[in-house]
Write a structure and sequence with these properties.
Radius of gyration: 24 Å
GO biological process, one term: polysaccharide biosynthetic process
Organism: Sinosporangium album
Shape: globular
CATH architecture of the largest domain: 3-Layer(aba) Sandwich
Number of strands: 15
Distance between the termini: 60 Å
GO molecular function, one term: NAD binding
Largest sheet: 8 strands, mixed
CATH topology of the largest domain: Rossmann fold
Structural class: alpha/beta
Strand order of the largest sheet: 3-2-1-4-5-6-7-8
InterPro entries: 6-PGluconate_DH-like_C_sf, NAD(P)-bd_dom_sf, UDP-Glc/GDP-Man, UDP-Glc/GDP-Man_DH_C, UDP-Glc/GDP-Man_DH_C_sf, UDP-Glc/GDP-Man_DH_dimer, UDP-Glc/GDP-Man_DH_N, UDP_ManNAc/GlcNAc_DH
Strand content: 5-15%
Keywords: NAD, Oxidoreductase
Number of domains: 2
Bound molecules: nicotinamide-adenine-dinucleotide
CATH class of the largest domain: Alpha Beta
CATH superfamily of the largest domain: NAD(P)-binding Rossmann-like Domain
Length: about 450
């Protein structure tokens, strides 16, 4: 059986409208494919139907405001409505892990059980959520087949991992090739047409769902590991007193294998919902098969140590100015887990703030992208409404997530507001040499991770 109707009339349902699902639904609808979005979170559905987007992802709020609630992007809590309308059902619900790295499959189970009751012959089901190898074959397809239809016969199935990064999600969705692990050749072919037409991207067909499941875990293993190397490189460069960014830029200038050496950037730490859990997912999967991975835990340990390191740099800078952390004021600019997102999930800024408070510091917080209620819950304090309010009388400015609005800020102009002998500690702003010189001329001291 073919799993797609004529190319011109393909419609999609996107189940799970979190960061990934919202971006995906908006990107598909923006390119002209009618999309129905489904989520069990009634508040989220109601917000989206009003054109409101809770995710501060560049371009996403504008797309949602324009498309949601119109025939281009309908949003509902009803699976029946979505499956009725859609040829292709794309699933992007959350896949957290337990303490030992085992998949917490509640959301995926919920989706498959609900879908199995209303799936129609000829549909193509695409899983985007990150899962351990074997999950599509051993868990998801058997659940879908409970409704009586058979994968590869009555409906198509493909595992197509999502590889976007928050902060640049929409541009990556429109650019990154989509990896396809189809249940059978027809499923792979249908998924290829869907992604080529739907997003205008290339595809990378794989020979099985298991290959595609491993691709996603390999990608995030590489990223986490590479950042761990950059972070350790930063620790040595700090000790040798050379600028780690200068070292990385020059080191990355030669080719190796299929591309250039590409050492990523050190920072205050690795957070978010993916890099903090996907590596443990691969460790658990390997362990279940008798393979004990050593590089993954090592990288995790290095990256998890960076918030404390950043807090210690702040304390050292205060000490250089003859100040004790007890009673000093540290203004944290940027609370999110990385630049250009408001996402506070597993943000490394939280352990920095905790360590500073432990040392007796008064900490003020500001982030133009993070939701104030989320910030209150994560940090136990109300964030300041403006940079000026946050930095008033600060002994240190800690730049921990450097969003686009911050880049327009002239830090030297804050001098009259801050305390005498104020330090700037750069956790993710990567200020240029000129900016650092400007700060020092204005009377600030500067310290970065490995700089
Ligand atoms: N966030 C990222 O940057 C990113 C990047 C690549 C891959 N991923 C992967 O993509 C998946 C989704 O991640 P996310 O960050 O968008 O998750 P999320 O937690 O932001 O969103 C999940 C959404 O699914 C909804 N949901 C839960 N159960 C449901 C059900 N039974 N039916 C319908 N909706 C349901 C939730 O209400 C929520 O809105 C995960 O597997 C994640 O690992 C995430």
């Amino acid at each position: 059986m073919r799993f797609l109707p004529d190319r011109e009339s393909v419609t999609a349902a996107v189940i799970g409208l979190g960061y990934v699902g919202s971006c995906l639904a908006a990107a598909l609808a923006d390119r002209g494919m009618p999309v129905v979005g489904v989520d069990t979170d009634r508040t989220l559905v109601e917000e989206m139907n009003r054109g409101h987007c809770r995710f501060k992802e560049p371009e996403l709020p504008e797309l949602i405001a324009r498309l949601a609630g119109t025939p281009a992007l309908r949003v509902t809590t009803s699976y029946e409505e979505a499956v009725e309308a859609a040829d292709v059902v794309v699933i992007a619900v959350g896949t957290p892990v337990q303490e030992d790295g085992a998949l917490l499959d509640t959301q995926l189970r919920g989706v498959c059980e609900a879908l199995s009751a209303c799936l129609r012959p000829g549909r193509l089901v695409i899983f985007k959520s990150t899962v351990p190898p074997g999950t599509t074959r051993e868990l998801l397809v058997p659940l879908l087949e409970r409704g009586g239809l058979r994968a590869g016969v009555d409906f198509g199935v493909a595992f197509c991992p999502e590889r976007l990064s928050e902060g640049v999600a929409l541009s990556e969705l429109r650019r990154f090739p989509v990896v396809i692990g189809g249940w059978d050749a027809n499923s792979t072919a249908a998924a290829a047409v869907f992604w080529e037409d739907g997003l205008g991207v290339e595809v990378v067909p794989c020979t099985s769902p298991e290959v595609a499941e491993m691709v996603k875990l390999a990608n995030n293993w590489w990223v986490d590991h590479n950042i761990a190397m950059a972070n350790e490189l930063a620790l040595v460069c700090g000790a040798v007193d050379v600028d780690v960014l200068e070292v990385i830029a020059a080191a990355n200038s030669i080719d190796k294998g299929n591309g250039n050496i590409n050492i990523l950037t050190p920072s205050v730490g690795v957070g978010g919902s993916c890099l903090t859990k996907d590596p443990w997912m691969i460790v658990h999967s390997a362990r279940e098969r008798g393979v004990e991975l050593r590089t993954v835990p090592a990288a995790r340990k290095v990256n998890d140590s960076m918030p404390r390191h950043t807090a210690s740099l702040i304390v050292e800078e205060l000490a250089k100015h003859g100040k004790s952390p007890a009673g000093a004021k540290v203004a944290v600019l940027g609370l999110a887990f990385k630049n250009d997102t408001g996402d506070l999930r597993a943000t490394p800024v939280e352990p920095v703030v905790a360590a500073l408070r432990e040392a007796g510091a008064r900490v003020s917080l500001h982030d133009p992208l993070a939701d104030a209620d989320d910030a209150q819950k994560t940090f136990g304090a109300t964030p300041a409404a403006s940079v000026a309010e946050a930095v008033r009388d600060a002994d240190c400015l800690a730049l921990l997530a450097w969003h686009r609005p911050f880049k327009e800020l002239d830090l030297t102009a804050l001098k009259p507001l801050v305390a005498d002998r104020c330090a700037v500690v750069d956790g993710r702003a990567y200020l240029s040499r000129e900016q650092i010189d400007g700060l020092e001329r204005a009377g600030f001291s500067y310290r970065g991770i490995g700089r």
